[in-house]
Amino acid sequence: MPMLEAQAGTLHTMAVNRTQPGATMPLAVRGLVLDANGTRLLGPLDLTLSHGSLSVLMGPNGAGKSLLLRLLHGMIKPTSGEITWAGEPLNDDHRRRQAMVFQTPVLLRRSVAANIDFVLKQRGAAKYATRSGVLEKVGLQDKARQPARLLSGGEQQRLALARALATEPEVLFLDEPTASLDPASVLMIEEIVRAAQDQGTKVIFVTHDVGQARRLADEVIFLHRGHVLERTAAAQFFDTPNSHEAGEFLAGRIVL
Amino acid sequence: MTNRMFLHMASLLAILLSVASPAQAADKAIILQSTTSTANSGLYDHLLPLFTARTGITVHVVAVGTGQAIRNARNGDGDVLLVHAKAAEEKFVADGYGVERFDVMYNDFIIVGPASDPAMVGGSQDATAALKAIAKAKALFASRGDNSGTHKKELLLWTAAGVEPTAASGTWYRETGSGMGATLNVAAGMSAYALTDRGTWISFKNKGDAKIQVEGDAALFNQYGVMLVNPAKHPNVKAKWGQAFIDWILSEDGQAAIAAYNLGGKQLFFPNGSRGAS
Amino acid sequence: MQDFGQAFSLAFALVFSGDADLLEIIVLSLKVSLTAVGLSCAIGLPLGAGLAISRFPGRGVVLVVVNALMGLPPVVVGLMVYLTLSNAGPFGWLQLLYSPSAMIIAQTVLITPIIAALSTQVISDLHAEYAEQFRSLSVSPRHAVTALLWDARFSLMTVALAGFGRAVAEVGAVIIVGGNINHLTRVMTTAIALETSKGDLALALALGIVLMTIALVVTAMVMTMRRTATAYAYA
Fold first, then answer.
1. Edge-to-edge strands of the sheet including A171-175?
2. Quick check: do B and C touch, 3+ CB pairs under 8 A?
3. What are phi and psi of A39, to 5 degrees?
4. CA distance A167 to chain C (A)
5. Whole-number Å distance between alpha carbons of A27 and A21
6. Which residue segment(s) compose the domain that C71 sits in?
7. Residue B76 included in any domain
8. Do B232 and B141 lie in a common domain?
9. Tens digit of each residue's pLDDT (9 = 90 or more) over B239-251
């Protein structure tokens, strides 16, 4: 993938104007609980994440990975417990410094460029340099004028990622962004995410793909039935996980 | 709303006003509240260009039933009223809504009906006798039923005939609640008798097999009156131009113009304008 | 019925003779109805989009009312606007009665609920898709409304078309507030009503055919634009 190396080059120049890394970190979660209609969906859950490492949230289906991500991002309100960023409760200012990429990209019915411009306008003035830089980062610079919704699945997700990066987020949440993509697209997206982490963005990545976790993770947070079973450095997790469930999961057995 | 959206709205309002401008642009213009019978006969298409050429005043005709025309004029939505229901007109003036009523012209009503003539009234010159015969035969009769001048006239004739037709409403007596033309369409469609003014009948194009059955009765006389809407009541009334129209239509020129109008060689209206002696 | 054949040949004759009076009537019809559609969209689209994305107590009631107002009889609208603009009414001083402006106002009142109700539906569907992404991006409600309206623009053209169809075809409202004054407020529908009342059914029908043709052309133009947009996945 020679193209990706070229993109990595532009990434370094992009990072100059970045706000001070880690200004909203660390993230602290205390006694977080989410109930719906009397059913416990998540928690109680405690977790502290710090700047500098790429955290991967893993766990079987229904473990609450996506819910936890949405709670951290402030998209849904917890039933109880608290989420603090750098010691402050989650507020709009924090949220503006975060971005999220969903499993299915939601693109505006506009051109590729207009999709980027939309978020740039939300965050201030749209600058051509920023837009073209971001598109170059994800390899879509040649498709700027094309209708976004006619892109291939992989291209659409890269555009969604570019849109997230256009806000220069301090925290980037990704909710199984490559779940239904072809291997080449998966690889491109992983490269871009890794590059963003290297530039100082805190990446929190949800996946249930063990291979992907192995390629990306600095640390793994393993969720099971709404609880954090373990939080382990990647180097150790994939060989000797602390919990029985994580072991079963890594071995490819069905974990209920 | 964003500023842009506000501008958007403002420009649309500007369009609205620019489309609206013709109403205001014709600065010398009056509104004449009148009846469908006069408008549909084509009389105004003949008269008004003459008046406008003479005075530079444009006349906008709102043609509705006499009842509605008087109501509109009471609301001050018009400058001159030209209708045909003398009693209602005199009440309009007496109530202070009109300045003074003048006779302007007349034509006559006729009773039209299907060629088969089920009530056998054809050729009669006695309107009340004909209505009695229609009621007796329970032959279909289409009434305006809209409180118009023609409708009021019809009700007077029924009273004179000693018949209470509304008791038969929905059976042989059909109240259309519509204008003269619409009522004639109904009458032609269901082979009913109907009372109409002669002008509308002559210019009416959907006669089917209907024809004039009763005419020539003095009771069928149809007097039109003209009056200025009272500017003391409604300051918006363009009294000067309205009065100019009344003066002209009552003048020799105006009266001659009314007499000159004909359709297919038939004179439709007969001038009998009189200043003050109505 | 003989009137049909007569009407068609008359309609052709009218159109191809370039009759000045007919042209005036057609132009006024389009001016009045298109302006009314424009105003209704300016009011109804933000209203509809706002209703689609907001949640407040009584929203259900508002939706029911807006939907019910779609069925407003034109005559009732005409009467309400007449009473408002009459010299005896609260806005008589504007001197708008019996003018094209009055007709535009009446048609705007008539079709704004249609635009609002139909756009609420269109925008609700789109919002269901965009809501989570917008929340993630902290898009303000105001920006969300503009973005949704823009992205739904081709679907909303169909909404505007529905409003235009209703406006250009109605006679009840414009005849009351416009007065069907020759060379001033006479439009296609009031001319048709007039010719019908004169018993000239063939001419009335011919005018009706011209009106339908205009509606057909406008609809075809909108549908073509929409089809093109769909090909670009913008609709």
1. A98-101, A171-175, A202-206, A55-58, A219-224, A227-233
2. yes
3. -105, 135
4. 9
5. 13
6. 4-234
7. yes
8. no
9. 999 999 999 999 9
